[in-house]
Amino acid sequence: MADERDQDAHPTTSEGTGHTLADTVADARRERKVLSDLVNYLERNKEEIDRRASLFKDIGERIESLDTVSGALKGRLDETRAAEQEITETSRKAAELAEEVDRRKKDLDAVNRLVEHINSKIKGLSLQRVIVERANEEAGKLNVLFWDMESRIKRLTEENKLVRKAEKNLVRLESMLERIADRMGA
Predict the structure, then answer these.
(1) pLDDT tens by residue, 101-148
(2) pLDDT in tens, 8-35
(3) Strand pairing partners for 20?
(4) DSSP secondary structure letter of residue 10
(5) CA distances from 62 to 65, 74, 75 (A)
(6) How far apart are the C-alpha atoms of 67 and 61, rounded to whole Å?
(7) In whole angstroms, what is the distance from residue 34 CA to residue 45 CA?
(8) With bands split at pLDDT 50, 70 and 90, how would you rate the model's confidence at 45?
(9) What is residue 129's three-state secondary structure?
(10) 12: helix, strand or coil
(11) Distance CA 49, CA 38 (A)
(12) How far apart are CA 60 and CA 49, in angstroms?
């Protein structure tokens, strides 16, 4: 202590720092006391500090575990996003296919209407065919009747000629008979 007083009485300054040696020693004593108090505190609270260190170690392990889980979740999130993109693409394709199906249905409906129209035309033509066939049969019958009538008319015309010839002959015979009757009666 006497030395300390001497030093306090004879302050020495360090070159360029502006502190005296006594200030530096006082600072060192304060630091030593603080360090000593800290060592005492650590010794008294060693179990608590060990417990907390163990707790921090456990928390560190849990954080590492959470990092692993977080990485796995990130991977699943990436997979989910990829699946979402695939679903979106599939949904878009499904919408396109639905539109194509609608177009095809409309085309099919138009074809079905056209088929119905054609079938009705075919049915109409079939009826017309039957009518034409019947008309041909009737025309054939009429032709037969016509030829029969024509041959009868021809025969009747010939018979008429014969009747006229017979009438002329009859008139001539009558006139001959009258002449003969006139000659006999005269």
Answers:
(1) 999 999 999 999 999 999 999 999 999 999 999 999 999 999 999 999
(2) 444 444 455 567 899 999 999 999 999 8
(3) 13
(4) S
(5) 5, 18, 19
(6) 10
(7) 16
(8) confident
(9) helix
(10) coil
(11) 13
(12) 16
What type of residue sits at position 141? K
23 close to 14: Cβ distance less than 8 angstroms: no
Mapping DSSP onto H, E and C, the string for 19-86 reads CEHHHHHHHHHHHHHHHHHHHHHHHHCHHHHHHHHHHHHHHHHHHHHHHHHHHHHHHHHHHHHHHHHH
CA 158, distance to chain mean position in Å, is 88
CA-closest candidate to residue 165, choices 154, 176, 173: 173
**Cα–Cα distances in angstroms (integers) from residue 159 to residues 39, 148, 179, in the given order:** 168, 16, 29
Distance CA 159, CA 148 (A): 16
Which pair of tokens denotes residue 13?
Answer: 């300054």
Considering the chain, what percentage of its residues have pLDDT values greater than 70?
89
Rounded Cα gap, residues 100 and 109, in angstroms? 14
Residue 20 phi, psi dihedral angles, 5° rounding: -95, 160
For residue 144, what are the CA distances in angstroms to 3, 60, 97, 134, 137?
Answer: 170, 121, 68, 15, 10
